[in-house]
Design brief:
Mean pLDDT: 95
Number of helices: 7
Order of helices and strands: EEEEEHEHEEEHEEEHHEEEHH
CATH architecture of the largest domain: 2-Layer Sandwich
CATH topology of the largest domain: D-amino Acid Aminotransferase, Chain A, domain 1
Number of domains: 2
Low-confidence stretches: none
Shape: globular
CATH class of the largest domain: Alpha Beta
Amino acid sequence: MTEAVMNTDLPLGNKRTGKVRDLYDMPLADGGDGILIVATDRVSVFDVVLGNGIPGKGVLLTQISKFWFDFFSNDYAHHLVSTDPSDIDGLTDEQRQLLEGRIMICRKSEVVPIECIVRGYLTGSGYKDYLKTGEVCGIALPEGMTNSDRIEAPIFTPSTKAEEGHDENISFETAADTVGQDVMEKIRDTSMGIYEKGREYALGRGIIIADTKFEFGWNKNRDIVLIDEVLTPDSSRFWPADDWGPGREQNSFDKQYVRNYTETLVTAGEWDKEYPGPVLPDEVIDNTLARYDEALHRLTD
């Protein structure tokens, strides 16, 4: 097994470290301000980075995002400029090799501080919410729905974008109070449009995209652009369409497999969902990689 890329140390300015990504500032070839997003192989579950990574995960996720950015490029403005390490000045050959396949060079934008979640199936925290209230994030759904049921008309459920700790589900009205009504209408409509087109394409490739989240930013002209990752197994639930059935948990091509494993540790009293995160065994690593790899190949041939 190749070694996981857990951290990077590049000769670029203003390094920021997220749960799974390292970010740096860098100039673009046209003189504009850019940002380098490096997808490491770190794994985050319940907002905790686990004790080891999944080798190659960052490459697979980057390739899926690049596919979708290209897929939607004629419909929606986005921040991706390049995925070629040779476009970064001042790196050694070793650093360029480390970054191959796992970077996005993007035009810098100001992040809209709202997570845009679209749900097409009733699952996860949405299902738990429904069992208690008959609603998902304040949106009423029909009676009698079961786990993994299809939501006939997908719903938009924004949340806060927390710098630390957990995001918090909020109403559309509260989100509009934060960033403005026009902005919320724009990112809601864009989120729904991307999800609808993306899930239709994915379904033709045997993948159900049950739900997903998007992020947006303002460019220098104050236009809204799609940023971060798009319809990946880290930001979405991917289910094999030929195995879907309501009333139960689904097999998946996404990070749910890792969540399920760590939930067994929680149930056994071996982990409390706090730092430090547990170490994944080789079997979980191999099976997760196989799921991500199958998702990429189904989507892109």
